[in-house]
Amino acid sequence: MALVLDNLYYTKTHEWIKVENDIGIVGITDFAQKELQDIVYFGIEESIVGKELKAGDKFGYVEAVKTAADLYLPVSGEIIEINKELIANPVIANQDPYGQGWILKIKIKDKEELKNLLNSEDYKKHIGEA
Amino acid sequence: MIIYYNTKMLKKTPFYEKHLEYKAQMIDFFSYLMPISYRSIKEEVLAVRNNCGLFDVSHMGRIEVSGKDYKEFVNYLITNDIFSLKEYQACYACMLYEDGGIVDDLVCYNLPERILLVVNCANLEKDYNYILSINKKFNCEVKNISEEVCQLALQGKRAEEILSSLTNDNLSEIGFYYSKEMKILDVLMLVSRTGYTGEDGFELYFDRSYAHKIWDALFEKDSSLMPCGLGARDMLRLEMGYCLYGQDIDKDKNPLEANLSFVVKFNKDFIGKEALLKIKEQGLKRKLVGIKFANKTVPRPKMNLYDSNNNLIGFITSGTFSFSVNCGIALGYVDINYCQIGNKVYLENKKEGEIVKLPFYQFGSIKKSKKEV
């Protein structure tokens, strides 16, 4: 069973976002890390920090032993930080996908966009674990 | 009334319950429910390299050939030479089509009055029917014993030590690619010093009714023994440059270009020999090579390979990130004029790789000191 936390928003492409005031913390879900298995590295350009990106934009990719997958932004906004520890030690996303394994922080442009995302119940249905 | 048929009945090996008990992530592997990994591929790969791992390989096909002229029959089927084997010795070989394309790669055991062929899971039905079609000229007894007999692979430098604790027999007298019928606990089985990892180790063939008993005994004897899935198995074999059927070899590849000449014996007759001689005479067009990439590049099957002028020179057949070598590694076919060791090759995204000598992993504990076939 994949872990799905109640206080997060989810995308159909298996990213999560945690909202703290107008800052969003983004990562990949426990379901995603289980599917990917051993993550080898995150391909995210440092140059995206400071850039304005839109909801649904590809912001990087993740390479695992079995496969690679693109990463998509849940909401629009300015990227303010990338988790350098995760880039240096990507296996953290396997071990703690909702905690130490966060990928980036974003200044959310429009909180209305959160309504387009899945809540935990919807996401559980989406991965067939409701 | 609508009747729903379960169109996809997945098969289970006798170790299925053990995989669940050991919390494996299961996948559909050519209609078998098999463990891809239990904890992480990395932990499992490194356990086999540094200690010992146990693999359920019961999904492999097992076919027994016996009866009058059974050795002549098998010798005609495979590229290696059965008559060069001592009793209980085994060999690796290819089975070919007339045109030199590969039906399958397999391990053949020269047992008393019979030969055991161990073939790929995905090819079992195809191989069995192919063998039966050739058998029309020989009339041997061909028996698919895959269901009755299960198979474990105990791999790693501590394999002999761990297995020895469950038997009174002397394992050290079993040489590389030799086998012996012996009792592990009180279960009679065929034990061979073989594997697919580059590490010393054994494969055990025994009646499926003892599956849980043997599995449990091994883990009870050594708590550091690591259950390993297909993910680790694939990485370990690729680190050694071993071919996988369906990826590196298939009906459109011949054993000469796949670096398998060492199991092709032209001093005897076999199906596909004429075609291979012709291919040899005309010269190979491409060759399977090992390619190493800088640490952050993960090569994948079907990716194209280019030279520095962007000319297409080949393609990747197997690729992964290797935890033993700590970089991206791949097997692929490269144009014969470009396949020299040291040459640089490029992926579509310009990431550079270098053709290197195989194996990628140089420190395997495999014991080749005793006679190797």
- Indicate the multimeric state: heterodimer
Residue-averaged pLDDT of chain A: 95
Given helix and strand content, the structural type of chain A is alpha+beta
Number of helices of chain A: 4
CATH architecture designation of the largest domain in chain B:
2-Layer Sandwich
CATH architecture of chain A: Beta Barrel
Strand order of the largest sheet of chain B: 11-12-13-10-4-14
Low-confidence stretches of chain A: none
The CATH homologous superfamily of chain A: RNA polymerase II/Efflux pump adaptor protein, barrel-sandwich hybrid domain
How would the global form of chain A be characterised?
A: globular
Strand content of chain A: 25-35%
The ordered string of helix (H) and strand (E) elements of chain B is: EHEEHEEHEEEHEEHEEEHEHHEEEEEE
Number of strands of chain B: 20
Q: Using the CA coordinates, give the radius of gyration of chain A.
A: 13 Å
CATH fold naming of chain A: OB fold (Dihydrolipoamide Acetyltransferase, E2P)
Subunit structure (chain A): The glycine cleavage system is composed of four proteins: P, T, L and H.
Modified residues (N6-lipoyllysine) (chain A): 66
Protein name (chain A): Glycine cleavage system H protein
Family (chain A): Belongs to the GcvH family.
Write a structural description:
Chain A has 130 residues and is α+β, with helices and mostly antiparallel strands. Chain A has one domain (9-110, 118-127): Beta Barrel (OB fold (Dihydrolipoamide Acetyltransferase, E2P)), CATH 2.40.50.100. Chain A is built from four helices and nine strands. Chain A is globular. Chain B folds into three domains: 11-58 and 148-239, 2-Layer Sandwich (Gyrase A, domain 2); 61-142, 2-Layer Sandwich (Alpha-Beta Plaits), CATH 3.30.70.1400; 285-356, Elongation Factor Tu (Ef-tu), domain 3. Chain B has eight helices and 20 strands. In chain B, strand 12 (187-192) and strand 13 form a beta hairpin. The chains are: A alpha+beta (130), B alpha+beta (373).
